[in-house]
Amino acid sequence: TVTMLDALHFGLRHGSIDVQLAVPDVAGGEVRGALASADGKLTRAEVAVSRLDLARVKALLGLGFDMSGTVSLGVTGSDTFLLTLDADRLSIPVADVNLSRVQGAASITRTGAVLDHLWLVHLDSSAAPETSSIAGSVEYRTAGGFELGAADLRARLRNPGVWVVAFLTPVMELRQGTIF
Question: Are strands 130-141 and 147-156 parallel, antiparallel or unpaired?
Answer without folding.
Answer: antiparallel
